[in-house]
Amino acid sequence: MSVLVPLGGDLPEESRALAEALRRLFDGLGISVRRYAARRHRDPGSLSRFLNGTRIPPWEFVHDLIRDVAEEQGRAPTPEAIELMRRLHRTALAYGGSALNRVQALEDELADADRQSLRSAALVRALEGALADTQQRATDLELQIRQLHGHQDRTAAEKNKALQLYEDQVTALLRERQDLMEQVEALGEELKDAHARRVRAERRCEELERQLVAAEEQVPQEDTVAEGPRAEPPAADGTRAVRPGPDGPRAGAPAADVPREAPSGERAPARHGLDPRFVFETFVVGDTNRFAHGAARAVAEAPATLYNPLFVYGTSAIGKTHLLCAIGHHAHRTRPGTRVRYVTAETLAHEYLGAGRGRGLDAFRRRYLDLDLLLVDDIQLLTGQGGAHEEFRRLFDELQGARKQIVVSSDRPPKQLAHLGDRLRGRLESGLITHVQPPERAVRVTLLRRKAEQEGIDVPPETLDHIASHVQRNVRELEGALVRVRAFASLNRQPMDVQLAAIVLRDLVPDRGPSREEDAARRIIEMTGGYFGVTAEALCGKERSRALVTARQMAMYLCRELTDLSTSRIGQLFGGRDHDSVDYADRKLRALMAERRSIYNQMTELTARIKAVDGPPTDRWV
Ligand SMILES: Nc1ncnc2c1ncn2[C@@H]1O[C@H](COP(=O)(O)OP(=O)(O)OP(=O)(O)O)[C@@H](O)[C@H]1O
């Protein structure tokens, strides 16, 4: 809208003020009137008149100019600047213009006021709404707070009730626990007693079983040939006992007390738990055992001076027990009065557990601390039950401190005896460690020749050589092979030549890794049980019916012959029996096979069946 301003005459003050403000604003654009008029499509004349105050421009022009100047200066027009110009423009219209201008100005102002009033009314409405909302929310929250307070009170009351209940229960349980702990203590004592009684009863059973079998064998039987002098049964304490003569132990024994060679399958009375057959004189020396033999001799000749302890290790049946016993015999023979004891680690642990506490334990300790020479076989089988490792370590320290000799054997080097604990293992490593390896061929031939001589049989050298070349790892297996060849030859009335040996030995000794030996033994037990119609559990159990005893002995014999396991380990697999039981079964079966065709046939058939199967035993054994 264009506004007319009166021409000529004095300009009203208000118009001049507006024109002055417009000119200052326009200067901020930094361009000429003409150029600005061209850019905004305006008439330059009118534009000049606005600026010199001769016409009052419409508000839109003023507003545009404010915006253009702000843009030119790189900013937005400030509300204060707009308001200032608005006031100047209104004043100019009101006082500097015509009546029409004034009407127009008042209308503008009214419109502004109206807009303002509308805005204020809208604001009032919005605020009223917001107030109502806020009040409503406050009311809601108040309600929620009251509900939560109620809930909180109820929960606290319930919690207090539950806490009280728990406290009552805890008090009752604590009381019950105390009672139970007292009962546990009492039962523990009873259990210890019962355990000791069980160990004693087990030993008694073993002993009676041997006596029973020995007694049975005295009774003449149709199919049985007398067995000759019997082996001395082990004493209840697990060592092999001295059978006293009428005047005390071994009256009339040779002056030097040299154990005589016992014929195969029999055992002369033993002394100090030492097997009388195992002396240095009967030990065949070769490259694989020379060092161990030399160390054993040195220890036997001067106990507790050179190597203490002496630790001998190697696989099964390569002469470790033989060397231990030989040391004992030699020491005893050359220094009469030397107190020697040979014991398996298993027996040692049993004795310790059976000793209990108090006097029993004192007696146990005295029995060992009185010794001059302690020979412990199969240390790998020393159980840690009831602190047996610690006890043995203590005995070890005291004996060593008192300059008493200790000799220990094992199927593995001390480093691999982690289960004995670091302290005991350290003691075992502290002396001389010797490794015995399976004998070389020449030694094996010598051993076979000697065995044949003892048995009084004539075996051609080439047959001995054939056997020696086929059975390499285990002397027990080697001797077993000779027994088999002999039995087969005698039953078939054939000469013991190489052909016959080849037939008997075919597949006799399987090539099996050591880790599978126990699996193999378990399979043997299962299959022998199956063959005789009894379970493996019964075979390893305590029942002693005649049929079961024979089947059990056959299984033991086969385990010994067909695996590399030590006799002690085999005994363990048979329900925790000791190695004497296995030795006894072995001797008995050898004799029976040579005498009774039925037994030989059964053993041959069973062996063939066992060899035909190659796989792990069933889960029952796992
Ligand atoms: N070098 C040897 N000279 C004479 N006999 C030997 C020799 N090596 C082993 N033997 C004989 O072999 C049989 C088994 O030996 P021994 O009982 O000493 O074995 P071991 O190594 O202790 O085995 P295990 O750990 O299974 O008991 C014994 O009859 C023993 O006399």
TrEMBL record:
SUPFAM superfamilies tied to this protein: P-loop containing nucleoside triphosphate hydrolases, TrpR-like
Compositionally skewed regions (Low complexity) per UniProt: 241-257
Domain AAA+ ATPase: 306-434
GO cellular component entries: cytoplasm; plasma membrane
Domain I, interacts with DnaA modulators as annotated region, ranges: 1-232
CDD domains, alphabetized: Bac_DnaA_C
GO aspect biological process, one term: regulation of DNA replication
Keyword DNA-binding annotated: yes
Region of interest (Domain II), residue spans: 233-272
Domain Chromosomal replication initiator DnaA C-terminal: 520-589
Gene3D superfamilies xref list: 1.10.1750.10, 1.10.287.1490, 1.10.8.60, P-loop containing nucleotide triphosphate hydrolases
Pfam families: Bac_DnaA (PF00308), Bac_DnaA_C (PF08299)
Reported function: Plays an essential role in the initiation and regulation of chromosomal replication. ATP-DnaA binds to the origin of replication (oriC) to initiate formation of the DNA replication initiation complex once per cell cycle. Binds the DnaA box (a 9 base pair repeat at the origin) and separates the double-stranded (ds)DNA. Forms a right-handed helical filament on oriC DNA; dsDNA binds to the exterior of the filament while single-stranded (ss)DNA is stabiized in the filament's interior.
This protein's name: Chromosomal replication initiator protein DnaA
